[in-house]
TrEMBL record:
Zn(2+) binds at C583, D585, H639, C642. This is Carbonic anhydrase 2. Its EC number is 4.2.1.1. GO terms for cellular component: membrane. It comes from Hymenobacter metallicola. Its cofactor is Zn(2+). It is an enzyme of class 4 (lyase). It is a multi-pass membrane protein.
């Protein structure tokens, strides 16, 4: 009988690029580029380095790190947190070219850190600290833009602290701004804010034309136009000098090439180079890890950045930046958040940002130098507000003091110090609460009785440190004799070695008091792990493995209720529409194979998934499923690698199971010709698994329960690949297959020989009917003979 070949299943790879966000990424890259130009220049100026070195670092951060990083939304470049490190390194090394060499070495160190998987350090900072860092940056962005709104633009660098390292502070800046108040800057800033706020309104978002234009681009164009109009009214009203972006303008190709410089490799033997490189690598790596953690929080799609890969990408970026004359770089939260707010969703935004920086210095630096700082201040004000919304403060306040205090302390510390120091202080406060909660919730215990025997259950917390050793041992010391003690550490991510040693020492003394200790821990081969531990008898190991089943059940229940509080209520009310007849040797549950919930499939299993007419167990299941549950589909499912089919092929005598497998041997004999044409034993084995399923579906069709089913009933034959996990439908069409037998003649045994009968078959010709009615001989189905001549009584 012909069967269709299985359909090939295409493999699906993960998308490296997603161009469905192409338009949004262009907007994000454009806006972050506009904000980055003055910041790159300002950071270079504050660092005492050539102005163009900041632009180079921005280009490398966008193009090189943007291409290598697996962060979807982070954008890299020079960052204000590195200013102090650069200034001190320049002072120590004496020249910028020697600093370039140190930056290259720092990049190598970052790559080594990535290979050593040092990116895990970001996991030790609580989320409340990361969110506090974002809120603090938002507040600083808002406050640092106020002088620009009033028209004072001398402080070009937006360092992430209210009180910068050189003694300047916000109060001084505001005093200067009030003395040098500029009405044109104020008007441009207010109009810019109005445009940005209007673009967030539903009417603008629904408009097909306005919604397709980046609000920040409109702000820049309007800012340049307003400044031009102010100049027409009176040259005194026009903004110029430090009020505008100041990008270097090369006058020739030679001038442009001259902006790039090579490191001084003659200083490779200078030990100060490596000291500076270590400082740069340490600060840049920590800021990068914290920045990608923060931008992942801002990512609307909530993707996670692989931190070890990010360290390697940042390292390569710093090597390239140092080689061509750029400042050290890292992931920058300000321009990343600006890009996200403008619509950036993939790494294409970072590449657009870097490409525009490169093109700007080549093609139109003079045009960029027309952009007023006041217009950029409007963009940064809105970005700062989105980072430090009042709703974020309310959310952490409602979460309780353990969340709110690290959050607010991180904000305050960053505001009065700088980014890294503030994060360190916030993390210290967070660590205090972690230690306090760990000490308070290190363990919970309850007592109960099983068959008259006292049981004490001690559940360990997620983190069990040496601080908890004394309290745990106090509980163990007071346990009465003849008690079974269950210490549950399966939910513990960390158990201090001192605590483990104390528990194992207690095991020895517990035996003397007839106390049985059951210590549950994580592990795949659970019983083997326990039996291999010192001081643990095989009997104790067996009990611990047994109790592990109950712990697994509790974890399973908790997980199901966490996802759906009414899970078990819904499962109890399920009315299955499928009967699954499978093999006992297939260890994968039906719900896992098919992605169904408990109760959706009615299951029966036996060795080799057989449908045998004398199997009363199957007959009972079948009758109940069809008549009571009104099952609509019955599935016979075999699996490759079936040991029952293998035993039947090898004709091994294994007692009762050998007799049971005679049905499989009959299938093998019936299809002996087809199986014999296959080249290898493995091919014959796999094909016999499939043929066995098909024959069992035929057997199922001939049962009285199926023949007398009141409603529509569909029979299916499946085979499951235990190595690949894929289910294949053998596409057994019982009605079609039995229709093919209509050409086969039926004969009835009579005294005068075989009498040919008319009508259709209701069963396969390989199976003989013995139900013929009183006074009649058996009816035998026989394929047509040559010339349609009967051969007599068989």
């Amino acid at each position: 009988m012909p069967f269709r070949k299985p359909m090939s299943i295409p493999s699906v790879g993960s998308k490296t690029w997603d161009f469905s966000y192409f338009k949004s990424d262009l907007q994000g890259g454009l806006v972050s580029f506009l904000v980055a130009v003055p910041l790159c220049l300002g950071i270079a100026l504050a660092s005492g380095a050539p102005l163009f070195s900041g632009i180079i670092a921005g280009i490398v951060g966008g193009l090189v790190v943007g291409a290598l990083s697996r962060s979807a939304v982070s954008i890299s470049g020079p960052e204000a947190g590195l200013i102090l490190v650069v200034v001190s390194s320049l002072e120590s090394l004496g020249s910028f070219k020697t600093l370039q060499l140190a930056i290259c070495v720092a990049g190598v160190l970052q790559v080594i850190m990535g290979l050593a998987k040092a990116g895990i350090i970001s996991n030790f900072f609580p989320s409340s600290v990361i969110k506090g860092m974002l809120a603090a940056i938002g507040i600083i962005l808002i406050l640092k833009q106020l002088p620009h709104v009033l028209g004072y633009d001398a402080d070009a660098v937006e360092s992430l602290a209210l009180f910068s390292w050189n003694g300047g502070n916000l109060e001084t800046l505001l005093e200067h701004a009030l003395r040098e108040f500029n009405a044109t800057a104020l008007v441009i800033a207010l109009v810019s804010l109005s445009i940005l706020i209007a673009w967030e309104q539903p009417a603008f978002k629904r408009n097909p034309v306005l919604s397709s234009v980046p609000a920040a681009l409109i702000v820049i164009i309007v800012g340049i136009t307003l400044n031009f109009l102010a100049g027409l009214l009176s040259p005194a009203y026009a903004l110029g000098g430090t009020h505008l972006v100041q990008l270097p303008v090369p006058k020739s190709a030679a001038d442009f090439v001259g902006l790039f410089t090579l490191p001084d490799f003659s200083q490779l033997a200078n030990l100060k180079v490596y000291s500076a490189a270590f400082s740069i690598a340490l600060v840049a790596s920590l800021e990068a890890l914290l920045a990608v953690e923060a931008t992942d929080e801002l990512d609307p799609l909530k993707r996670k950045t692989p931190t070890n890969h990010e360290l390697k990408a940042q390292g390569v970026g710093n090597m390239v930046s140092g080689l061509v004359g750029g400042l050290p770089l890292t992931s920058v939260i300000v321009r990343s958040s600006v890009s996200i707010n403008a619509g950036g969703r993939t790494k294409l935004a970072a590449l657009v940002h870097g490409s525009l920086l490169l093109l700007s210095v080549v093609l139109f630096p003079s045009l960029l130098n027309l952009i007023p700082w006041a217009a950029l201040a409007g963009i940064l004000l809105v970005t700062g507000y989105k980072l430090a919304r009042i709703s974020i403060f309310k959310q952490h306040f409602q979460a309780g003091i353990t969340e709110f205090l690290p959050f607010i302390v991180t904000i305050a510390a960053i505001l009065v110090t700088d980014l890294l120091i503030g994060i360190g202080i916030g993390a210290a406060v967070g660590l205090f609460f972690v230690l306090r909660e760990t000490y308070k919730n290190a363990h919970f215990f309850q007592t109960y009785t099983v068959q008259g025997e006292e049981h004490l259950r001690i559940s360990l917390g997620e983190h069990v440190s040496f601080l908890n050793k004394a309290s745990i041992m106090t509980v163990l010391k007071d346990i009465p004799v003849n008690t079974t003690v269950e210490i549950d550490g399966t939910n513990s991510a960390y158990i201090d070695r001192d605590v483990l040693g104390a528990i194992e020492n207690f095991r020895e003394t517990a035996r003397q008091r007839n106390i049985r200790l059951i210590f549950l821990r994580k592990g795949d081969d659970y019983a083997q792990n326990i039996a291999g531990q010192p001081h643990v008898s095989s009997k104790e190991a067996d009990f611990e493995a047994y109790y592990k089943l109950f712990e697994n059940n509790r974890n399973w229940v908790a997980e199901k209720l966490r996802r759906n509080p009414r899970f078990f209520e819904a499962a109890a009310q399920q009315t299955p529409k499928f009967l699954f007849i499978g093999c006992s040797d297939n260890h994968v549950s039906v719900s896992e194979m098919t992605g169904t919930a408990p109760g959706e499939v009615f299951v029966h299993r036996n060795v080799a998934n057989l449908v045998v007419s004398t199997d009363l167990n199957l007959a009972s299941v079948l009758e109940y499923a069809v008549e009571q549950l009104q099952i609509q589909h019955i599935i016979v499912c075999g699996h490759y690698g079936c040991r029952g089919v293998k035993a039947a092929m090898q004709n091994e005598d294994e007692g009762v199971v050998s007799s049971w497998l005679n049905t499989v041997r009959e299938v093998m004999q019936k299809h002996n010709h087809e199986l014999g044409e296959l080249e290898t034993e493995d091919e014959r084995y796999r094909r016999l698994v499939e043929l066995n399923v098909i024959e069992q579906v035929y057997n199922l069709q001939q049962t009285t329960t199926v023949q007398n089913a009141a409603g529509p009933l569909h029979l299916h034959g499946w085979v499951y690949d235990i190595h690949g996990g894929v289910i294949r439908d053998l596409e057994v069409d019982v009605r079609r297959d039995f229709a093919e037998y209509d050409t086969i003649f039926r004969y009835q045994v009579a005294p005068d020989g075989l009498r040919r009968l008319a009508g259709n078959l209701t069963q396969a010709p390989s199976i003989y009917s013995v139900s013929t009615g009183a006074g009649r001989g058996p009816i035998i189905a026989i394929p047509p003979f040559d010339g349609d001549a009967a051969l007599g009584v068989p």
